[in-house]
Design a protein that fits this description.
Elements: E1 8-12, H1 17-28, E2 32-36, E3 49-50, H2 57-71, E4 76-79, H3 94-122, E5 126-131, H4 144-164, E6 169-176, H5 182-195, H6 199-208, H7 218-229, E7 240-243
Parallel strand pairs: 1-2, 1-4, 2-3, 4-5, 5-6, 6-7
Helix pairs in contact: 1-7, 2-3, 3-4, 5-6
The protein binds nicotinamide-adenine-dinucleotide.
Nicotinamide-adenine-dinucleotide binds at residues 12-13, 15-19, 36-39, 53-55, 80-83, 103, 107, 131, 133, 176, 178-179, 181-184.
């Protein structure tokens, strides 16, 4: 406990699900954690909570100015905000493609860009951790926009790892498998509609696909983020870690 004392971290999409578990783990290690989420209600906002849409470049830029004034230079960025939709590619609306790519790919680019600028200027290195998915490594039916966006995140992770290495800014990704969150519950309902099954049958199928015999928790993912944020991962960059219970091994 206390391994991240004195560190300043930003977690996007931190109001619920995996992001919320990441915030908790980083705080347990005594980091100061700034949370960005489009879905924050006004009564959830405070000095460290910001209701920002990661697809809005102007808002993201202004947010980093506020962070610099209020907290100083950040040490850790976790790009976790993400959305999913489901449709066969031949049925997919252009708007659906754009929305998913905007949040999952452009959002990571925008937030990383301003974070890395700040880290470079401060000259003390840093960590950027992107939450991709096993959908960043494999194809899944009905998830064309999501799969494309998560592959994009892994590509950007590698490029930024190269571009920022000389500044000791390490850029890595985590690829979760099936994790029990509101996003996953909604996907089971959509998947059921598309495949003529009920959500419970999809859930049973999910379990049967995981070699370790259970789906993942948000804490399972948060633990790998904590590892990448820690000193124990100071010689790892441009890497992606599968947190899938053995479902994905590539
Ligand atoms: N749940 C899974 O099985 C799973 C698997 C692999 C990867 N992931 C990824 O993990 C991340 C978190 O997923 P989750 O399951 O916790 O989802 P979730 O829907 O439960 O939570 C996502 C959070 O991101 C926020 N958000 C969405 N769009 C935003 C935007 N434009 N700007 C700011 N905040 C925004 C939401 O308000 C929400 O609080 C996502 O990137 C997701 O793609 C999830």
């Amino acid at each position: 406990m206390g391994n991240l004392a004195g560190k300043i971290a930003i977690v996007t999409g931190g109001a619920r699900g995996i992001g919320k578990a990441i915030v908790k783990k980083l705080e347990e290690e005594k980091a100061t954690v700034i949370v960005v989420d489009k879905g924050f209600e006004s009564d959830q906002l405070g000095q460290k909570q910001f209701a920002i849409d990661v697809t809005n470049g102007k808002a993201v830029e202004q947010f980093f100015e506020t962070v610099a004034d209020r907290f100083g230079t950040i040490d850790i960025l976790v790009n976790n905000a993400g959305i999913s939709t489901m449709a066969e590619v031949v049925e997919m609306q252009e708007q659906e493609w754009d929305t998913v790519m905007d949040v999952n790919a452009k959002g990571v680019f925008l937030v990383s860009k301003f974070a890395a600028r700040q880290m470079k200027k401060a000259g003390k290195g840093g960590k950027i951790i992107n939450i991709s998915s096993q959908a960043g490594k494999n194809g899944y039916k009905y998830m064309g926009s999501y799969v494309a966006s998560k592959h994009a995140v892994l590509g950007l992770t590698k490029v930024m790892a190269l571009e920022l290495a000389a500044d000791r800014i390490l850029v890595n990704a985590v690829c979760p498998g099936i994790i029990e969150t509101e996003m996953k519950q909604t996907e089971r309902i959509w998947g059921g509609e598309l495949r003529g099954m009920d959500a419970a049958a999809i859930e049973a199928e999910d379990y049967s696909q995981v070699p370790l015999g259970r789906t993942g928790s948000p804490e399972d993912v948060a633990d790998s983020v904590l590892f990448l944020a820690s000193k124990s991962a100071d010689y790892i960059t441009g890497e992606s870690i599968n947190v899938t219970g053995g479902m994905t091994m590539n």
